[in-house]
């Protein structure tokens, strides 16, 4: 299964914002999966303009890789007219995706 098959029914032309909480967007494969999810949002008919990411900061030697990887994704999204807002928290521990449909928040 790909992201499209999992999320297609939730993504339509009225989605304007997506909020993602995932404490583990740190390593290369996690950054790649996040990028693939963002690409799926851009390819779908939804009108996502802002993606909010809440994650934890890598406490080890991977901090530079994490921040540079997220900055690359941020720039790529900006080139497609999408704003990526990144926030770090040491207390985030669950994964969650929320979408805003016509100013109404929906949990997925």
Automatic annotation (TrEMBL):
Its GO CC terms are:
midbody
List residues of the MITD1 C-terminal phospholipase D-like domain. 2-99
What the entry lists under InterPro entries is as follows: MIT_domain_contain_protein1 (IPR052817), MITD1_C (IPR032341), MITD1_C_sf (IPR038113)
* Listed Pfam families: MIT_C
The record's Gene Ontology biological-process terms are: midbody abscission
Instruction: State the source organism's domain of life.
Output: Eukaryota
What name appears for this protein in its UniProt entry?
MIT domain-containing protein 1-like
Species in which this protein is naturally found: Octodon degus (Degu)
- Which gene holds the coding sequence for this protein? LOC101576370
């Amino acid at each position: 299964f790909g992201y499209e098959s999992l999320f297609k029914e939730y993504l339509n032309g009225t989605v304007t914002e997506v909020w993602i909480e995932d404490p583990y967007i740190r390593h290369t494969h996690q950054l790649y999966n996040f990028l693939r999810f963002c690409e799926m949002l851009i390819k779908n008919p939804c009108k996502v303009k802002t993606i909010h990411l809440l994650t934890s900061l890598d406490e080890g030697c991977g901090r530079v890789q994490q921040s540079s990887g997220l900055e690359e994704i941020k720039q790529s999204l900006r080139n497609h007219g999408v704003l990526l807002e990144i926030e770090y928290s040491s207390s985030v521990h669950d994964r969650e995706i929320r979408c805003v449909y016509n100013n109404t928040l929906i949990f997925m």
